[in-house]
């Protein structure tokens, strides 16, 4: 990977995080509560801290990779994501569902900042796809479904957005390819890079005006079952 390539991805991730923080700031501006008692203020501080983590990891990738292999609870990561995006979901009337077996745990090995960046990119695309869908027939939603298949954790992230043509699907993961006005075409290439690094297989299924589903298959780990609950 060359330096300019890295820098583009780096700027993209900063931009993503700043967009999230900005939407939280807007919300806080509308409230009269004392900041430190405001959960949004605390959330904003958490997002800043995730951004700093990401910057640190990007600046020293070799240490990041070895330090990264810690068990991460996908359910709590998606609860965090729900919280980060809650204002946008509310504004755009998007329902967000996390579906999983009640007593099951879904731990994967990886770096939390990288998993967060990957999921933020997918959610950001899903939100944009929902906004671009013209018909109002179906109530807009994003669903994260977790399951276990033959020792693998399988994550399906579906949206009820505008969907993609077959031709768009073939090119969507290439860097610089975007089908929306003002899109940079970086998000999915970053998703692909992180998935490669964490040995996650990705599959995409989409249909115009039906929606899109990304399936992520995490590597099987024998010690997954003994992770903390
Ligand atoms: N969930 C989705 N539903 C419909 N189209 C999608 C979805 N995810 C990605 N796409 C399409 O794939 C293209 C590439 O996505 P990618 O995230 O790489 O770039 P972008 O969203 O256009 O810009 P950026 O992420 O850099 O801001 C998008 O422009 C969009 O057309
Ligand atoms: Mg994107």
Q: What would you note in describing this structure?
A:
The structure is a single chain. By secondary structure, the protein is an alpha+beta fold. The chain has a domain of 158 residues: Heat Shock Protein 90 (2-Layer Sandwich). The chain is built from seven helices and seven strands, in the order H-H-H-E-H-E-E-H-E-E-H-H-E-E. The protein is globular and about 50 Å long. Bound molecules: adenosine-5'-triphosphate and magnesium ion. Magnesium ion (MG) binds next to helix 5. The site of adenosine-5'-triphosphate has 24 residues, from helix 5 and helix 7.
**Strand arrangement, major sheet:** 2-4-5-7-6
Q: What gyration radius follows from the Cα positions, in whole Å? A: 18 Å
| SS strand fraction | 15-25%
CATH topology of the domain at 69-226: Heat Shock Protein 90
Shape: globular
pLDDT below 50 for ≥5 consecutive residues: which ranges?
60-67
The total count of helices amounts to 7
Specify the CATH homologous superfamily of the domain at 69-226: Histidine kinase-like ATPase, C-terminal domain
Main pleated-sheet profile: 5 strands, mixed
Chemical compounds bound to the protein: adenosine-5'-triphosphate, magnesium ion
CATH architecture of the domain at 69-226: 2-Layer Sandwich
The rounded distance between the terminal residues' Cα atoms is 37 Å
According to CATH, what is the class of the domain at 69-226?
Alpha Beta
The count of β-strands is: 7
What structural class do you assign from the helix and strand content? alpha+beta
- The arrangement of helices and strands along the chain is HHHEHEEHEEHHEE
Task: Summarize the amount of helix as a percent range.
Answer: 40-55%
Mean of all residue-level pLDDT scores = 83
């Amino acid at each position: 990977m060359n330096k300019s390539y890295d820098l583009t991805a780096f700027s993209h991730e900063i931009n993503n995080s700043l967009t999230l923080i900005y939407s939280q700031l807007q919300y806080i501006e509308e409230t009269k509560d004392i900041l430190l008692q405001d959960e949004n203020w605390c959330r904003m501080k958490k997002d800043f801290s995730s951004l700093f983590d990401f910057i640190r990891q990007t600046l020293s990738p070799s240490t990041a990779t070895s330090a990264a292999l810690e068990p991460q609870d996908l359910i709590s990561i998606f609860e965090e994501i729900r919280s980060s995006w809650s204002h946008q979901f509310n504004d755009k009337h998007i329902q967000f569902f996390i579906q999983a077996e009640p007593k099951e745990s879904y731990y994967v090995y990886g770096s939390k900042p990288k998993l967060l960046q990957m999921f933020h990119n997918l959610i950001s695309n899903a939100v944009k796809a929902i906004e671009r869908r013209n018909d109002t027939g179906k109530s807009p939603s994003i669903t994260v479904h977790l399951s276990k298949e033959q020792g693998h954790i399988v994550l399906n992230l579906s949206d009820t957005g505008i969907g993609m043509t077959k031709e768009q699907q073939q090119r969507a993961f290439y860097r610089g390819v975007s089908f929306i006005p003002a899109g940079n075409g970086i998000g999915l290439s970053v998703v692909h890079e992180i998935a490669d690094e964490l040995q996650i297989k990705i599959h995409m299924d989409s249909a115009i005006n039906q929606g899109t589903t990304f399936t992520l298959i995490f590597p099987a780990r024998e010690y997954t079952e003994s992770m903390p609950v």
